[in-house]
Amino acid sequence: MKLMVVKDRNINSRFVWEFCNMLSGRGHDVTFVFDSYKQQQITSDFLPQVKVINLSAKKGNILSKVYTGIKSIFQPSSFRYAQAINAIKPDAIICYFLKDVYNTCFLHNHNIPIILMVHNHPPVFFGPLRHKPIRYRVYKKQLEKISAYNLLLESFKGSIGNDYPKHEERVIGNIIGQIEPSARTDLSIEKKKIVYIGRIDEKQKRHHLLFEAFGKIAKDFPDWKIELYGGIKHPDYYNRLCEQIDKLGIKNQVEFMGFTNDIKSVYRNADFMAWPAAYEGLSIALADGQAHGLPSIGFKDAPSVNEVIVDGVNGFLAKDVDDFAQKMAILMNDKKLRIKMGAEAVKGIERYSEKHIADKWEQLLKDVA
């Protein structure tokens, strides 16, 4: 089957190349299409047989490049996508963002099946459009033309809302690499380290709740430490976090590590993960940690987190900050429990193996085509 995968920003994400490679590995003719005059470089992680097309690629002499730049600004992207669709003639189109559906549908006249990947909690994914009436009406019209929504988790079914077109909702998660036993964390060796991987972001990631919880028990665990990995999205929030750490007296037990190119070592050198996020899509970072054998703690009311973490099995779900602190203390005190929950975490991630996810995509593509 000829497939056109569209993702118009964050084009070098791990998801893009893993997804395209997976489809190509199943024998499909895959073309990844994006439209960016600013972002020209593309990762080398794609398989050689995956074709990559930038509709606003800089080519030829300086005049051609200037013309391309002007066109990328003043010509609607949907025109360039129409040309790409006519050239590729795909059997199905897979879109990552709402904008991608717009680009492949607006002012187009084709009946090619389109699948929209809803790669976040649906109310969050669709929510911003509700505050932009004109764009909402335009995008909603294009959404009527798609064939199916791809949701990440069973709990997301029915949460898109009645103000968007109804289509089949097929649940297919992200690919999570399965880690060999020898490469997992050895929880029999205590590191006295808790990790959290996620950008410094107040609304979703909520580091302040983790610090508030840890501050309640830190004096009882003076040799335990929290390490935080991820970029600083909001500097003002980061500054307030630093003030909070000072006020709680945990400055020597908390460290912002920034970005890392060796996330596997992070997982292998931790005892468990703390995950205070308000919601997730299907957090690859959380699932990767589970694949390495780490138990985790999150909140009961956090969509996705409360499905990936099974309370009392591969970690704990807390009802509030006080409960979060108590659950942290339980894991910090009990190595055997960490080992038991870590083993269950590995088992739970097996459903996200590439083969399992690829089989589900094969069925969805067959059904829509």
Describe this structure in words.
- This protein is globular.
- It has helices at 14-25, 62-74, 77-88, 98-105, 122-126, 133-143, 207-217, 235-248, 263-268, 284-291, 305-308, 321-333, 335-349, 354-368, and strands at residues 2-6, 29-34, 51-54, 92-95, 114-117, 148-151, 168-171, 193-197, 225-229, 254-258, 272-274, 296-299, 315-318.
- The protein has two domains: 2-175 and 353-368, Glycogen Phosphorylase B (Rossmann fold); 181-352, Glycogen Phosphorylase B (Rossmann fold).
- The mean pLDDT is 93.
- By secondary structure, it is of the alpha/beta class.
- Helix 11 links the parallel strand 12 (296-299) and strand 13.
- The chain starts with a strand and ends with a helix.
- Helix 7 runs parallel beside helix 8.
- It contains 14 helices and 13 strands.
- The longest helix is centred in the C-terminal third of the chain and has 15 residues, at 335-349.
- A seven-stranded parallel β-sheet has the order 3-2-1-4-5-6-7, sandwiched between helices.
Helix content estimate: 25-40%
Rg estimate, integer Å: 22 Å
Strand pairing plus helix content: what structural class?
alpha/beta
Identify low-pLDDT runs.
Answer: none
Integer average pLDDT:
93
Dominant shape:
globular
Q: How many domains?
A: 2
Distance between the termini: 9 Å
Q: How many beta-strand runs?
A: 13
What sequence of helices (H) and strands (E) makes up the elements? EHEEHHEHEHHEEEHEHEHEHEHEHHH
CATH architecture of the largest domain: 3-Layer(aba) Sandwich
How do the strands line up in the largest sheet?
3-2-1-4-5-6-7
By CATH, the superfamily of the largest domain comes out as Glycogen Phosphorylase B
CATH topology of the largest domain: Rossmann fold
CATH C-level label of the largest domain: Alpha Beta
